[in-house]
Amino acid sequence: DRYEILSVAHAALMVNCPVAHIQGGELTLATIDESVRHALTKISRFHFVAGESFAKRVQQMGESKDRVFNVGSLGVDNLLSCPIMSFEHLNNTLHGSLKHPFAVGTFHPVTLIPDQTIPAARAMLESVLDHNIHLLLTGVNSDPGREILADVFNDYATRFPKQITYVDSLGHVRYISAMNHCCFLIGNSSSGLIEAPAIPIPTINIGDRQRGRPRSPSVIDCSPEKDEIESAIKRILSSNFTDTLKSSDAAYGGKGAKDKIVDILKKISEDGLCSPKQFEDYLICK
């Protein structure tokens, strides 16, 4: 759903190169990713979705059900097959700056509600600082508004070096390892709704950036206000909430997506790969 891939898909379309789209049909109503994702669906000939509701949404856009496959989340697949660094090893790569308890913070621009970004980020940082929890804060993605947000993160990390470890990019293995060792994830990243529940660890999801995605019981949604974020932190740190994680099901399922995708692609004939797709009309009942 990243806009960077849209030009690649467009180039493939122009030379009749088949495109297979992973995790279409999902909603993120406050970001430009929403429009990009649906545009990719229409360019693509094959669709590997992460859930039945997503499959229905892709079909709603005129895609044949014979080309839509519910395989689960590739993000969860990557998470569960990723080697996990020990806390000591992870901390050594961060120059010994991490302290227990710590949270992982991942916060990106809210591209369709830009005025929400900076106040929400400040509220998140202030709330974590008030609870005396160390924050491992990851860098900002490349969305519009990243420079101002990165300046805010750098400012807080400079002023509170003993409480905030700011890393521009952890990379896949360190990020997943940090999630496995932290007490909760906080911010507005999709990793809090897709990957974190599969570990499982609690997530505090702030604001509207992920509005539209399904929720696992381990996710607490809150408005971008300091008092609501603080209440969510208190709730997560309670033993009652921690106990619910043991019996909760992750909304995006478990391992196996990549093997399913490979098996399906192997079975597609050359004619099926290159044949033009048809627009399927569906009767939508409200």
Automatic annotation (TrEMBL):
<dbReference type="InterPro" id="IPR029767">
    <property type="entry name" value="WecB-like"/>
</dbReference>
<dbReference type="InterPro" id="IPR020004">
    <property type="entry name" value="UDP-GlcNAc_Epase"/>
</dbReference>
<dbReference type="GO" id="GO:0006047">
    <property type="term" value="P:UDP-N-acetylglucosamine metabolic process"/>
</dbReference>
<feature type="domain" description="UDP-N-acetylglucosamine 2-epimerase">
    <location>
        <begin position="1"/>
        <end position="266"/>
    </location>
</feature>
<dbReference type="Pfam" id="PF02350">
    <property type="entry name" value="Epimerase_2"/>
</dbReference>
<dbReference type="InterPro" id="IPR003331">
    <property type="entry name" value="UDP_GlcNAc_Epimerase_2_dom"/>
</dbReference>
<dbReference type="GO" id="GO:0004553">
    <property type="term" value="F:hydrolase activity, hydrolyzing O-glycosyl compounds"/>
</dbReference>
<protein>
    <recommendedName>
        <fullName>UDP-N-acetylglucosamine 2-epimerase domain-containing protein</fullName>
    </recommendedName>
</protein>
